[in-house]
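Fold this sequence, please.
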Amino acid sequence: MTRFLRWISVSALALLATIVLLPQPASAAVGVVPCGQNCLAQALDAVCWEKEWCAVKVEVKGTPAAGTVVNYRTANGTAAAPGDFIAVPSAELPLMAEGVTQLGVFVAGDAVRERDEMFTVEFVDRDGRVLATASIVVRDHSAR
């Protein structure tokens, strides 16, 4: 009986160590984009209206190296391109200094009265892996 309990204890400890020590996927760090040695950029969610340009803010903490850019793209959610917003398949956002940097996305409009919809701006690395996301809620003027 003691040998069996010891085996279960060792097995449980090994399983726990495996779970804790395994590298976490990139999605575990969603929300923050590295922008240099002592620099992080955080994507902020936004609420936008149909038929308007929408400012998506990226808050920079620290000092990005000269010429630092963050790659981004848009992704469909309940709002879908091209009917609800103009898709951005790939673009770069230059980060100049500490503070807030903005990128613009155009939210299209249609004649359909709709509830709030959502799409995302994804900040990606060179290999296309998502580092951070900003959720964009699209509101319809006519539904209010």
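Residues 69 and 94 are 4 Å apart (CA to CA). The beta strands are 32-36, 39-43, 46-49, 52-62, 69-75, 91-94, 99-107, 117-124, 130-139.
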